[in-house]
Each structure stands twice: as structure tokens, then as C-alpha cells.
Design brief:
Number of domains: 1
Largest sheet: none
Shape: elongated
Number of strands: 0
Helix content: over 70%
Order of helices and strands: HHHHHH
Number of helices: 6
Radius of gyration: 20 Å
Length: 161
């Protein structure tokens, strides 16, 4: 059975989400093992490109390789953004903690010209926008990594003709 790049992107995202959940519940918060999710992401893109390289439709052109990798990483990125939003909405304590730290940081600044009421209002806005900020960061990060991995893998696979 041949899997399309979109299906491979879905599989990659499901594995990433599964690992993220396992990491959240079983791996210490400060552990660098949390970065393995990016390795899974890169492996999913490479899996897609290597399978394309072995297929009869392989043209050897960079643009075709990149397009194939893009189909995989864009769906994985979208699913991870959806997961990030849902996970953060299910855990409002993350937004509360980040807002509290933001407020403390603002209050501790010696050259701060804001009143405590202004700082409180900013902390509330920070808390309300937390989930979307995490999603924006997630999308941007995954897109950059996806482009880099796809471009480098495509170049390597083309040179190995």
C-alpha cells in the first residue's frame, strides 16, 4: 500500500502528539528529551522524501522533491498547531502561570512607568492571548524546521541520483 505525503504527514503528527503527551506526563519538564518531537517531525519528512525518491514518479528535480516534502510537513504543522491550541485550552494553568510570571517581571522593573492597574490589565491580556501566542510560535517553528529539513533532504536525495 502506497501512502501519500498527506497521509504520512497525518501519521507523523499523530506520532508527534503521542510523544508529546507521553513526554508531558512521564518526562521531567526540564529534560532535553522533549526536543525529540522535532526529530520525529524531521523523520516524517525524510520518510516521505525517501519514499518519493524510490517511486517511479521521482523526477530528480528539487521543486518536485520540495513539493512532496511540503505536503507532508504542512499537514503535520497544521495538526500540531491544532493540538497546541487544544492542549493549552485544556490546561489553563499554563496561561495563569505565564501571566503571573509576566506580572512579577513587570512589577520588578525599576524603570517601569506603568501603574499597577496597567500592569494588571496587561497581565490579563497576556493570559487571554497565551494559547494563540503558543499556536503562532508553534506554526512558525514547525514551518521553519519543515522548510529546512525538506530543502536539505531534497538536495541530498537529488545529489545521490
Amino acid at each position: 500500500m502506497k501512502l501519500s505525503p498527506l497521509v504520512k504527514g497525518i501519521i507523523t503528527a499523530v506520532v508527534m502528539i503521542g510523544f508529546s503527551l507521553v513526554a508531558y506526563y512521564f518526562i521531567p519538564e526540564k529534560s532535553s528529551l522533549h526536543y525529540l518531537v522535532y526529530g520525529i517531525y524531521a523523520a516524517g519528512v525524510c520518510w516521505t522524501l525517501i519514499a518519493y525518491r524510490k517511486s517511479p514518479s521521482f523526477s530528480g528535480r528539487f521543486s518536485d522533491n520540495f513539493n512532496t516534502g511540503f505536503k507532508c510537513f504542512i499537514i503535520a504543522t497544521l495538526l500540531m498547531a491544532l493540538y497546541s491550541f487544544t492542549f493549552n485550552k485544556m490546561h489553563p494553568e499554563f496561561a495563569e502561570e505565564a501571566s503571573r510570571l509576566y506580572k512579577e517581571q513587570q512589577l520588578s522593573q525599576k524603570d517601569n512607568s506603568k501603574t499597577p492597574d496597567e500592569i494588571n490589565a496587561e497581565a490579563v491580556r497576556y493570559k487571554n492571548g497565551y494559547a494563540m501566542a503558543v499556536v503562532y510560535g508553534s506554526i512558525f517553528g514547525y514551518l521553519i524546521i519543515g522548510v529546512i529539513v525538506t530543502a536539505l533532504s531534497s538536495l541530498i536525495l537529488i545529489r545521490r541520483k
